Hints:
Layout: E1 4-7, E2 10-12, E3 18-24, E4 33-39, E5 46-52, E6 57-58, E7 67-72, E8 77-82, E9 91-101, E10 104-109, E11 113-117
Parallel strand pairs: 2-11
Antiparallel strand pairs: 1-3, 3-8, 4-5, 4-9, 5-6, 7-8, 9-10, 9-11
Amino acid sequence: xxxxxxxxxxxxxxxxxxxxxxxxxxxxxxxxxxxxxxxxxxxxxxxxxxxxxxxxxxxxxxxxxxxxxxxxxxxxxxxxxxxxxxxxxxxxxxxxxxxxxxxxxxxxxxxxxxxxxxx
Length: 119
């Protein structure tokens, strides 16, 4: 079992920035990928950033150029730098760890941290 804890959420004005942090109880080196998802009320949980064990990052068009995912393997931490925030970025943001166990992909989730972008 992997424990993930997010922090760094809060209220920010449009155009502002936030940096989310996620600390894992286990080694993120054992995870095939780390990522950040978000879920707004009435909407599906969506991927906002991912980074593979090989260091390859991926972003959807909605956040590309504004969000940056990074990791610190020594500290077992993953970060999400969010710039130029928009009201539509408002959501609960979840840290995610994905691990391929034989034929099964296992997802681990943090408790979520609220990000509210509002003027």
